[in-house]
Amino acid sequence: MKVLLINPPRENELVGNNPALIDEARGYNPPLGLLYLAGFLQDHSSHRVEVIDAQVEELSYSDLKERIRTTQPDLIGLTAMTFTILDVLKTARLAKEISPDIPIVVGGVHAFLYPVETINLPDIDYVISGEGEESFAILLDQLEGNLPLDKVPGLTYLDNNEIRRNPIPPLCGDLDSLSFPARRLSPYRKYSSVMAKRQPITTMFTSRGCPFRCSFCARPHLGKQFRYRSAKNVVDEMEECVEIGIREFLIYDDTFTVNRERAMAVCDEIIKRKLDIGWDIRARVDCVDEELLQRLKEANCERIHYGVEAGTEKILKVLNKGITLDQVKETVAMTKKLGIETLAYFMIGSPSETREDIMRTIDFSLELKPDFVHITILCPFPATEIYTRGLKEGVFTKDHWREFAKNPTPDFNPPYWNENFSDRELQELLIFAYKKFYTRPSYIIRKMLKVRSWGEFKRKTKAGLKVFGMKKRD
Q: Which residue of 172, 183, 188, 440 has the fewest C-beta atoms within 10 A of its own C-beta?
């Protein structure tokens, strides 16, 4: 069977009114979920697989339609987040216009949260919930052999117009057993990041699951148990990437340093192999110490992304972060002292947050002096504690996300927590926060002095112009 995995264009990505346009200048990241599927199929099946990343290739829908027509796949696989479901549906519709009988399979977090709603959408034939590598391969085998589908783990499908849902499989306990993402099937030389010192870049997952209980976050398809790959397996993948010219890695684990010994072992393995790479991680300020930071530095970890979220103890408690402002200041200062760049994540518009609280958060971002900040308006996502609370307290008068899942329309605006602010007020505060941080003359001069190439200059200039030109979305 010839399988085509597609990362759709961005034309209808659901962004609501969040004007954090700096994201658009960051570049593109590989569609890891699809590449994991492709790698698994290459290693564990006889099915042929191709990947189209319409985003990085900047394909229009007419371009994509022609690519599908030329490829002539037997089946198309798509991964869906709630924010991308409109483009997923448009891609499915395109495929059906070419060949009405071509099966369309959808996976991803949206499919996990809303399997019934998704299977009821037009042009979707199969929905896979949970970690999908093995389930997808089994589905292909069953379809190719015209065999019953009731044994495909996590599958939702229609049987004589009746919805069938197979049990979701247990989470993978041995991540080392999974194949590496099939990066060679993607245009891997085109992936980039405004923060990266080397191009091209790639992303990696070295673990799955997060044991922490932040009230604004939920990854139910990955579970709360922290599962991690061995140091050797992680660095084997890095070395494979180096062989094809990739030397910059963005580690996308929620918290890379949950298991300190494993984090140290990854560093030791990189040092032992003398890999000439740079890499970023995400971490909590209470999950690092000076010895670990020093080892990360020795292994050429160049940047750590810390989830700070708020500049007041009050809002940190609301968000159930389990950290203090003193911990944030101490850890960020220690990281910077050791020569590792920092990125701090912040949010505004949390429950009970006042204008004074937001101003204190903005001031705290300046006081920390991270190399980068990423600021968003809190958008309560489905399955999060905050969204459930909003429904119970009447902040949200209906289940917006489920209604959208049933009938996705481009005019949908993701709900903010409008307890103390209107959407417009939150947008204005967000723009103010970005501009106050990034348009300081001292910051601009410091960043320009660190530019090491013309390509890096162009990427950072593009990002800077986005910030200067930020405005509210309609």
A: 440
